[in-house]
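Supplementary notes (optional reading)

For those who missed the lab, this is the record we used. Protein: Aminotransferase. Length: 465 residues.
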Amino acid sequence: MAPHRDDDTPVQSGKPHAEHLLHRSLVMHPSMVTSAKGTHLTLSSGQRILDACAGAAVAVIGHGNDEVHDALLAQARKVSYVHTQSYTTPVAEELADFILQGSPHGLEKAFFVGSGSEAVESALKLARQYHYERGQPERLHVVSRKQSYHGNTMATMSVSYNVARKVPYQGFAYPHVSYVTPPYAYRYGLAGETEAAFTARLLRELEDEFLRVGPDTVMAFIAETVIGATAGCVAPPRGYLAGVRALCDQYGILLILDEIMCGTGRTGTFFAFEQEDVVPDIVTAAKGLGGGYAAIAGIYVRGRVIDALRQGSKAYNHGHTYQAHPISCAASLAVQKIIRRDNLVSRCRTMGKVLERLLRSRLSDLRTVGEIRGRGLFWAVEFVQDRETRETFDPSVGFGNRVQQEAFRRGVAVYPGAGTVDGVRGDHVLLAPPFTVTEEELETVCRVLREAIEAQEAAVAGMAA
């Protein structure tokens, strides 16, 4: 044990300083960020990084916004914490009313927690309680999709299909889960299959799965409206989600749409599902909800789900110590007011078209670029070793990570993905810049990304020679 002074401060022994913060990797130290403003991060080395992924699609209004900082400080001076079992705060009520003004799409109630994983866990528990209150306790099963990601708690990881993250936890998983094919045509569509035929095949598979496990045992189908980081910005084919909704209604199953990454304006509408002919029963949100200024996530719930609780126990049997935390709610409210006042969802949609044009014009001819896909300011580039056969790189190459690291060296942060195809094979990088990004900055992003891809194409070719 290190010696201490009387004031309990550890005494420096002359040995190398021990780092006590547990990082994600024990061998690679993350870059030290000393300040952040707008679309840029400044590292301890002095290098400025253009944040083309907004962290993880989080910093929707950019970094260092003083208006949000002022709202945080003002709330801290009023009420910094209360326990929601006994109390509420004006700011939490205002945030819920601001987002759900007029009960859009029949969404009646908001429930705020601290992370996306907590939000999905809350949605699953609410779905279970809904059926329990209605006298159907046998509904325990969740149907999810392959190449999905819904969180890092044991339950949310159980309904996810991010293979690498699940490896050490086999045996811990919630057992009543099964998976169907994702609506990922580039990899799961058949040769010559039309979009309509692909959609019809996926819906047949989903219904077959409901029937296989027993539709009266299924409590929910959960899906990302637009698949996020695991497969890389995969939007559903036309008619798919509407067909899913119809099947759920037919068998009394709740539809949970996970919009933690793709929602809150990221794909060009506030709710990503607004671009589909569908209304979910429960929606999850996070990331852009607080814009990175505080830890906050939430679920939005349709009235019919709340009615089941009203007619039964008259309570939601769930809660967290930091639920609806006043400072987090203040940060989120400030961010959401800025988004609405400055028409940033519309701007996201417009700048997304610019980003799409630049990506397609600058990268489509590169031999390792297989598919460019996305919506709004939510785009991915999937890499292949052979464009004709769509053969992936060997996972040991780590092509997507190599591209991400090369772009970072050149001053642009993108979000890498591996296991894109099936949890093992495939690589992509994801772009999700702040809604405030400029056309000039998008030009820089696409130029640097091309340079990074070309550099790694040459490097990998040299390795094989």
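If you only remember one thing from this example: Residues 1-16 have pLDDT under 50 and may be disordered.
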